[in-house]
Amino acid sequence: MPSTLRRPRLPVLSLIGNTPLVPIHFRDENRTLYAKAEFLNPSGSVKDRLALCVIEDAEERGLLRENSVILECTSGNTGISLAMVGAAKGYKVKILMSDTASVERRYLIEQFGGTVQLFKATAGYGTGIAMTRDLAAKDDRYFLPCQFENLLNAQDHEEHTGREIISQMHGIVDAFVAGYGTGGTITGCGRALRAVNPSVKIYAMEPAEAAMLSGEMPCCHSIEGVAGGYVPPLLRMAHIDAPVKVTSTAAIAMTRRLSREYGLLVGTSSGANVVAALRVAQDLGPESRVVTVLCDRAERYYSTKLFSPYN
Ligand SMILES: Cc1ncc(COP(=O)(O)O)c(C=O)c1O
User: Fold this and answer.
1) Are residues 100 and 230 in the same domain?
2) Is the shortest distance between the CB of 292 and ligand 1 below 6 Å?
3) How many folded domains does the chain comprise?
4) Strand order in the sheet with 31-37
5) How many whole angstroms from 121 Cα to the centroid of ligand 1?
6) Is the CB of 150 under 6 A from ligand 1?
7) pLDDT digits (tens, 9 = 90+) for 57-97
8) Domain annotation covers residue 16
9) Pocket of ligand 1 contains residue 232 by CB under 6 Å
10) What are the φ and ψ backbone dihedral angles of 75, each rounded to 5 degrees?
11) Of the residues 111, 143, 175, which one is the last residue of a structural domain?
12) Is residue 171 part of a domain?
């Protein structure tokens, strides 16, 4: 029986979390939003938090061995984060990713030494999740973080991201707005914020083309990383006040505006979150304190509509 492992944190891993919260003032709209700059995590997204948390939890519980392979289905960012943490700790990582995810995500995972297997996007995340379970049933080297149902995902956001926001906002938050992939960010941050202010409003941004929380059928959209055709179990635990629908076109336009007018080189789901948050702030009034999330960096979208001058 191979021995269990607990490997040290290399310095890069201490760069995860404690991200800044930046105010963004929209002069024309006369509103200021407060944006959690998760794109400043070392691999470039909010998912670094989850990757470190689940891998160190697995080490603690003796679930990782010398020959273990970390296996996960993801829209890409979790794959990049797991591959980065895996590289820093010396674990192999295999990622199942939808064939619609941007090619940059695949290159980044491979650059960190991970391997990628693509699955057809048509049936949504459910297909990839089932594939990870099948692989793990046949080969006990695989360790599955199960990001869509792992309670640690939301718990880590509650204990860290959410509490960081509370401290950075000096405890005063009227509303929190975020998209959902696994639902970890919105569920965990929402829980932390509600614990200090039970009347805080929690809004779920969702693509207008795949507005499942609004009761609509999922269809193609260009806001990568969110709404993968599946309402994840973690999201069912979130106490969401209302969904806010954002079109891919509006998300792309705002993402470009964030780069060109504010110097924030972020990905499309960040732009979508800002569109939704601005709408919420317009409803709540000029003094409202609305917090949202800048989830990842723009460089992983070179091949997408975000960087196409004709879209
Ligand atoms: C770009 C992007 N935005 C937002 C999210 C949503 O985060 P969560 O999985 O915590 O709901 C993800 C998740 O993968 C993502 O990749």
Assistant:
1) no
2) no
3) 2
4) 21-26, 31-37, 290-294, 175-179, 201-207, 242-246
5) 17
6) no
7) 999 999 999 899 999 998 789 999 999 999 999 999 999 99
8) yes
9) no
10) -80, 0
11) 143
12) yes
Would you state the structure tokens that stand for residue 33, as one six-digit string? 């939003």
Q: Is residue 217 part of a domain?
A: yes
pTM higher than 0.90 for the full model? yes
Q: Average pLDDT, stretch 197-216?
A: 93
Nearest CA to ligand 1 atom 2: 225
Q: In angstroms, what is the span from residue 3 Cα to ligand 1's centroid?
A: 34
User: Which amino acid is residue 240, in one-letter code?
Assistant: I
Closest atom, ligand 1, to C-alpha of 76: 16
What is the best residue among 53, 75, 157, 266 to mutate for testing ligand 1's pocket, by most ligand atoms within 8 Å of CB?
75
Nearest CA to ligand 1 atom 15: 225
For 273-300, how does the pLDDT look when each residue is reduced to its tens digit (9 = 90+)?
Answer: 999 999 999 999 999 999 999 999 999 9
Catalytic residues: 47, 269
**What is the Cα–Cα distance from 84 to 12, expressed in whole angstroms?**
9
| In a domain? residue 1 | no
Nearest to 225 by CA among 125, 111, 143: 125
Gap between the Cα atoms of 91 and 232, Å rounded:
27
Cβ of residue 112 lying under 6 Å from some atom of ligand 1: no
Structure tokens that stand for 298 in this block: 């723009």
Domain that holds residue 66: 47-143
Cα(180) to ligand 1 centroid in Å equals 6
Give yes or no: residues 301 and 180 share one domain.
yes
The one-letter amino acid at 78: T
Query: Does residue 271 sit in helix, strand or coil?
Result: helix
Ligand 1 centre from 4 Cα, in Å?
Answer: 31
